[in-house]
Batch of 3 targets.
Target 1
Amino acid sequence: MTPLLSVRDLRVGFGRDHKANEVVKGVSFDLNAGETLAIVGESGSGKSVTALSINRLVDFGGGRITSGSIKLTRSDGSSLDVVRANERTLLGIRGRDVGMIFQEPMTSLNPVHTIGAQISEAFRLSKGLTGAAAHRASLEVLGRVRIPDAKSRLDYYPHQLSGGMRQRVMIAMALASSPRLLIADEPTTALDVTVQAQIMALLAELRAETGMSMIFITHDIGLVAGIADRIMVMQNGVAVEQNDTGAVLDDPQHEYTRHLLRAVPHFTSGKAVRSDGTRQETIDPIVKVDDLVVRFPVGRAWFGPKGAIHAVDGVSFDLMPGETLAIVGESGCGKSTTARALLNLNTPHRGQIQAGSGHSRRPVQMVFQDPFASLNPRLDVEALLAEPAIANGQRPDADLRERMHFLLDRVGLPRDALTRYPHQFSGGQRQRLCIARALMLNPDVVVLDEAVSALDVSVQARVLELLVDLQREFGLAYLFISHDMAVVERIAHRIAVMFAGQIVEIGDARAVLADPQHSYTKRLIAAVPAIERRKQHFAVDMTQVPSLVRPPGYEPPPALWHDNGQDHRVRLEETP
């Protein structure tokens, strides 16, 4: 059988001397119709450049295919050598024959057009739909990727959606063209595990229905274990191993493949929870949040807003010194809004937030998800580290410089890093810089908002070890926000599960993960991808996430709770 795609000795370079600056070095593989190939590797391995070469989008990023061939079998049976095709021909295959889902949706969506306009454009260009037909198709495809309030979301702009919501819009746009080959470049990185499982199930369903082939690029081997037919492992631009999925996972031949498999955090339903740190109820909490409510007005009527988004509704928890509380839940559930309210970046509608105990009122510090966006590219490391201290009234003297040296040592960076700029560091090193900067004011509490989700698995493991070491050394309390349950299992002492703006289950990490009580927590844990679960097939769940938009004056009914043993509380679910 003729492969849908045949790549031979692909070499891609960047810069003035393309051959001297090769980042893809002789990659070859075949992809049959209806087959899924997973390309796995860490940042800089060349996996994304390989994918971008298949539809020649690499040309627009300064890259050039220096040698090799990419043969694509078209719908009429003809063979096209993509390497030698002209731009007019390439425009005909992009979207229709080869669809693409990019990793970063905010840079891929047009900020000045609504979501509806952009999805409708995809239907117009690929299927000729306009007007009401394009509108109906847009609504249907948004529903398939589980976007709540799809009708109203069509009028939203990209900045009005969470990162996970934006990624779902990107996936919807790619599916609009019904491509024969879909290239998915880290398409679920920003998604929580329940939506991730649904997207993976949806992609598997579409593949079964249409015979669509897929190239799935990821650093998470556990994610592709259940969907990929074959796996190709890349390191430094070379395909070091490729074979059937079972063979790669069960009997890896290359040392780098074995290294990747060791670095992947395996979810164990609570067995890997940290054993250090026993919660002492006699100590005053370092953070106490009571009945926190955060709302955002939406729409305008004659006498005020038409309603409000109940982003956070009645959230209460406390955080002890030296403890890690993880907040988990779907994108848009309110976990980041809760964290931002703690730092006074969002104004609460009502509720009490107390941070610090006794005479200690040190500023709460935050480490954000994207380290590159968090660091000013115009400032060197010395200026970046000094910035929070100077803003807090400290003088740029020898003591401050010694503090910088001390923290650089603790996060594993050389002292000469002070003279370097953010672009001169890797992603993992930049996140270490962000952690060092957060510790400059010697805080009691650090909020980590998806702080390791953008890192490769081996770098992620080292940063998690660093966070645990720093917590033990300085007695730090962490509010750890994440959608990765395997990571949460390894760092959290306690877990709060959020759904639709409310905490539905909270307590000891081992108790919550090993014995989940709320229906949403059960779905969350059941959806965690793992190598051991590769034979588990998820069904597409079309259950709609409850809308957070409420009419003016609406107040939710008071919460009723059930104690499921010591330090494990569950919100009672409303009967339909």
Note: DSSP finds 20 helices and 22 strands in the chain.
Target 2
Amino acid sequence: MAKVGTMALDGGDPRLPDKEGQFGGQSVVAYTRPQMRALHDPSVSFEEYYYFAQQTRAEEKEHHRLAPSGQSRGVLSTIFPSKSGTGVEERSEKRVRDPLMPNTNTSDPTRRASVTDEEWTNASRAVRTATAGAIFYLITTDILGPFGLPYAFATTGWGPGVALYTVFGIMAGVSGWLIWQLFMGLDSYQYPLKNYGDIGFRLYGQWARYLFNILQSIQLITSVSLIIISNGEALSEAVKFKLCYAICCLLWGIAGFFVGQIRTLQKFGWLANAAVWINLLIIFLTMGFVAHSPPLYSAAGSSVGYGINPALVTADANGVFPPIQHTAGLPDPSNFGASVNGLMQAVFAYGGCMIFIEFMSEMKHPHDFIKGMWGAQFFIYICYMLYGLFMYAYQGQYLQNPSYLGISRYSWQTVGNVLAMVSALIAAALYGNIGVKVLYNNIAVEFFRAPPLTTSRGKWLWVAIIPAYWSIAYVIGAAIPDFSGFTAIVSAVCILQFTYTFPPILHLLYNIKKNALRSGEGFDPATGNVVLYDTGVKRLMRGFMAGNWYLNVWNIIYFLGALATAGLGIWAAVENLIVIYSIPQLNAYGCTSPLDVTG
């Protein structure tokens, strides 16, 4: 059998006719071409996905080796990426911007019949333009991660906080590695992976795809909602509560109409770059501010201490507030649910796994993703933890969520708020970008045969959809009265699943299917048939025990542990929301800000 790399580099399988895949009497193929398949065709086997993935990886490796920009990619080039390079070059002299492709609605099978194999793969290559440096910044753009972490430490105490955050950080990196392996083994130019749901579909079927897409859509739109509300609170505080709180939030929803028009992740690269450095500036500034000023006692009603035990932040008859307190362990073991809710804020810092597939799908060389991912995880762990511990040391039970809202001196408070609003808007635009793509590709394209976003008509549909998406995000966020409670339920129901529960169970089946392949088995492109010497339980057991069987055992243990943690988080979040909703709460439909106790 010819080597996969040879097939990828000289144009196809040498066993096929020279005019493989052509129509109009030029040649007749012996199998259904990838572009003629339905978008999610259940008849495509794992072995076919895996076969084309190996071809694509071999071609990427060769082009990366030959490209001048790919010869040296060190740490500095990841953190300070070059603007050069627009993607993997085509093998054909005919450019992908041939008049045929932009005018062809490839969502319609009848229109795809006119697309050749070369045009189909070139179209897939053309959208892959992001670099490892861009990925590093996209992952670390998360605005909610660092500024929710002090709240997490305040609810868990020094010891449990550091231990749990360390464990979550290590396992988030492991999950990222698992997702990367899944992408490398299932994605190809012929069958590109677009989102998390596509992996579920290729391994477990349509039901997994629907589940993942629903949860991913919920997480993304609620993340946008959270940022709209946090920015609304920051703006209300910056204008000294003189502007109606509902308007403060609405302004950020409207701002999303415009920043959301950025369609490709490559264009987000430099914005994400700026957002990371802005976040670092906010971190350093707020650390300096809290070291030279007392907590914002006037907002004690929305502090972490109030959620644990109101007596911790309630002033006495003389108006004197309790002193700042710290604990080595849980601050109130009798209120275990509050500590679990705080822990969910830490989970938010590692919520990027959900959109790793989208990041890799737009990378020119996805093999480099693992470098950008580990760099981002290490950055998140070190910087975020140091920030969280420092803020907890100076503000204790009076910490706010997000933490920059708890600065007591107005001038300093405003500096942090303004910077945070800019950075948060960039992060919200990124979440909205991915969220709209998930909905567009899985609803508009699949059910209504909408044109791809690379076409002129698709671009205009994007322009129309963005305002609707941000409007819905505003409505959702405005209806939730408790910011920390909102983040806790989103973390437990969505983020924890995508980062910790789903990766091991997906990788388990992928590893079994891959390891079960023996010499002579697999997809035969000459006939379109899949050759397997056995099936059923016997094959599954052989795949489980072959090769790195210990990784399969670890995946099972990891999955069960993550599932139990998710169940615990959901219980704590629901209990917390029941308590919150038992009394009247302020929301973004009114004019009084949650931070304005005099309103």
Note: The radius of gyration is 25 Å.
Target 3
Amino acid sequence: MSLYANPNGNANPNGNAPAEPQVPKASQACMSCRKQKRKCSKTLPACGLCERMNRHCDYSDASPPPTSEDFMALQRQVSKLESILKGEGGVMNQPSPYQTSASGLASSDGLPQAPVYTPLQDIPWQGLQNRFPVIAFLDNGSFKSGGINVPRPSVEIPVDALEMLGNGDSVSVTINEYFSTVHKWLPIVSEKRLTRNMQNPMWEGGPDLALLFLCMKLITSKPQDGLDCAHNPIYLSAKRFVGLMEATGTASLLVLQANLLVTWYEYSQAVYPAAWMSAGWCLRYGNMLGINGHEEAAQLLGPLNTWTEREERRRTWWGVLLTDRIVSLGSQGHIMNSQEPTAGDFLPADDTAWENGELQAMEKKVSNPLEDPVAPFPRLCQAFVQLGKVLKHNHVSKPADPHEPQKPRFIEASILYSEISLLARTLLVEANNSKDFLAFAAPLALTYSALCTLCESYSCPKGCKADTAEEQAMQAQAIDGLKWVSLSIMEFSDRITKESPMPHDLDRVSPIIMDALYSAACNYAWLFRENGDAASQAALESIRLSLRRLQTRWRNAAEYLRILEAQEFVGFAGRNRGS
């Protein structure tokens, strides 16, 4: 007779208390518990932890990662990082590396060292579950009306990512360096909101936050001699981590911000075509989240709780648009975005007000006069809008018939030139009056790039042959415009050098300025080739000197120098992005 069915309620004939039903158990801990060195219930078909986390439970005999003393130090780092991600410590209160020395970041001779890296230890791709509601794409209307939520996937932070991040002190250094440098020219992550959340003991960070920290470390890392930037261990880890989040259907603003930083790393360190592809990914992901401002978009991020959160989403979307345009600026593959900002769209709020969480009484729109004073990031967005008008003029407004009258198009070009020149002069005054010239460097350089792009399309039409008086007048105006903007860029380049005398000062110089420097260098090379002007050659050498300084921080400067040298060798100079 079965003990489970004893009518007397006794477990055995001796009268002991009833025994618990014997649940079958595995002979060993599951793979996930072994990897994480956690106690496993060994219950079948899934252990208690895997069942709670709703993930695949693997009791196979595959060997777990090594458990020797080699990994004891790593486990201590993991524990410290987990406490950071759970809000235990407030890493933002740690001293900035720009105020105190950051030991361990440089060798005794002052040169940065390549990060310590252990080969990848089996990222758990097997058994991943993607619970993203497909209806959001197949029938967006039903998705929104049904009030369907996007579940938050359970994703384990990859071991290699944890190893790259290091301990809490290392994360603190990364965050402070990011907000002291990159954030100054790409302010899309709210430092105030991040600090408040991390100091809240009830708030728990997740893998998307760890990914953002990793990408902050990536974008602030410097090129290493002898190491291809595409082989940077932090970069490889970040790319895998992004792929992991995508595979699980994660919908998070932090993931978008993280991959924007990956894209800027790829652009600034000349990792192509990855930069081009990543920019497109960010555009699609932003659309998926619904931060593009379109009413018909599914709002996967949920309702907004504060003005700071709303502004962060707006800034991130502007960052997506900026990134996509700048990454493709030098190529002939311009893809005009159907989501170009309209006159009624709002610009980002004042930078200082957003940083302090101060609600602005009057928000500026794209249609506001360019002379109205705004902060550096809204200025960068205004330059982006003007550049978009130029690209549309150059690539969309061309008449299909070359014999069609060009006068209306020339008038439009002259109006554009006047508007962008006004923005350039306004920005230059603001930059000169500011205590921080580098804060205005990115918008000023992008404005110069817009002028170069416009003038280049008219400076040498149809093989430098102007058939009509109107074309001759437009060509002369474009050449004069190129001379003026090239001189402005050379002076701008000299000012950048003056404002960044020390190597660490280059950390605050935005890679956005590279296109303008290269455009001016091409123009001076062309002028020198045409008339042998010594002043043009001197200006060219001055810009080359700036690029040589900048290549220690951003590798795309070295690539621009290489192109200039190749053009000189083959007897060709200049480019024409507008034709």
Note: Residues 251 and 400 are 43 Å apart (CA to CA).
